[in-house]
Amino acid sequence: MSSAHQTSRRRFLQEVAAVGAASLLLPSANRAFGYQSPNERPVFATIGMRNQGWTITSKSFKFADFAALADIDANILGTYVEKVEQGQKKKPDGYADYRKILDRKDIDAVMIATPDHWHTKIAVEAMYAGKDVYCEKPLTLTIDEGKLIEKVVKETGRIFQVGTMQRTECDLRFLQAIALIRDGRIGEVKKVTCGINRIESSPVIPEIPVPEGLDWDTWLGPAAKVPYRALPELRTGYGGGVPLYSNCHYSFRGWYEYSGGKMADWGAHHVDIACWALGATETGPSKVTPVDYKMPVEYKDGYPLVHDQYNVATQFTIQADMPKGVELIITSEGDNGILFEGTEGRFFVNRGKIAGKPIEDLKEKPLPEGAIEAVYGGKVSENHTANFIEGMKARKQPISDVWSHNRMLEICHLSNIAMRVGRPLKWDPVKREIIGDPQANSFLGSEYRKGFEIKMS
């Protein structure tokens, strides 16, 4: 955790305490395992090292030892083997083939930070190999993949954390928001709006030779075999050092073949908090309506007709009809964050602020003692990795479990399907299928390319 983040988190906790939630105390670093003894620290491996892979790995040095890394880009793998060695003072092994990690008996858990279309295959095979799993969000590419992961978690008894870190690491504002909802501070919730930003369309992206060191066929994996595409201009900032436009590193979120676009990427954060606040983590919507949206290329029968440009929705406003008559709006317009509106008030929360009259009223009427802990189900973990390891030790699923995540993510996947086929979808949250629309139902799963099927044992 950076010093700036630590300071921000500490300041927020002081603010929460000032309005009556002083019971929210963070545990020491030793809580997850024994930590003081090297023999009690769990042994991890990370699969997929670029960007978020490095982020979750470096945040975990305090809690675990990393014995191995895997990445199919030789340049990336070598770089991060060195960085992990510097971070933990011990060199991890590096593999191009993640299966070599799964074969090792000394590794307790894997962290998965590959592109979305690889998540399910690796996660399922890791659980069958006896590993606990931490997998980045969004967990799946399709709704059927989510059902499969749930089945395997139950069958194997493995501990599985989804990397939706707003549940622990964003200054706790989101937990406070849920506590306010539960305490009736805005009355009966009527509408929740999730602003999740948009992805820009791309220019035409030409076919070019695959960069040296990148195993393109394996990067595609379960997805259909297509040519590598990229433009020479490089991306800067987070995700830098790779082409600004491509169908590979970082830019994979512009393609439905590998991702769910912004809808699944940021939706996995804000829609998750919305569903948690609504008490809708074990159900789903009755209907999803694409109110307004823009696709960057022409579609027919749910499939893009153009293959040299991004194909995910670039603008959208989706309405999901939730239980108890709540209207859930997911939009690419306005501020990034969540607006809760009820019969007695409203407030807004994101990673930088929580604002509105219910927040101001806390000075005179603080939340009840332990209200935020009640949301979390106990003392709040130091970060997502600590919570994962606590679950490993107790053999108890962590705060971001696969069931609540999949229920939330189903809304995002249904929103993408509705835009692809161009019509509202009625959803059966019990059977978890689209009602009366065989074509739309065909998008609940996808066929894996031959040679990259999931090994189910």
TrEMBL record:
<dbReference type="InterPro" id="IPR019546">
    <property type="entry name" value="TAT_signal_bac_arc"/>
</dbReference>
<protein>
    <submittedName>
        <fullName>Tat (Twin-arginine translocation) pathway signal sequence</fullName>
    </submittedName>
</protein>
<feature type="domain" description="Gfo/Idh/MocA-like oxidoreductase N-terminal">
    <location>
        <begin position="93"/>
        <end position="163"/>
    </location>
</feature>
<dbReference type="Pfam" id="PF19051">
    <property type="entry name" value="GFO_IDH_MocA_C2"/>
</dbReference>
<feature type="domain" description="Gfo/Idh/MocA-like oxidoreductase bacterial type C-terminal">
    <location>
        <begin position="206"/>
        <end position="453"/>
    </location>
</feature>
<dbReference type="InterPro" id="IPR043906">
    <property type="entry name" value="Gfo/Idh/MocA_OxRdtase_bact_C"/>
</dbReference>
<dbReference type="InterPro" id="IPR000683">
    <property type="entry name" value="Gfo/Idh/MocA-like_OxRdtase_N"/>
</dbReference>
<dbReference type="Pfam" id="PF01408">
    <property type="entry name" value="GFO_IDH_MocA"/>
</dbReference>
<dbReference type="InterPro" id="IPR036291">
    <property type="entry name" value="NAD(P)-bd_dom_sf"/>
</dbReference>
<dbReference type="GO" id="GO:0000166">
    <property type="term" value="F:nucleotide binding"/>
</dbReference>
<dbReference type="InterPro" id="IPR050463">
    <property type="entry name" value="Gfo/Idh/MocA_oxidrdct_glycsds"/>
</dbReference>
<dbReference type="InterPro" id="IPR006311">
    <property type="entry name" value="TAT_signal"/>
</dbReference>
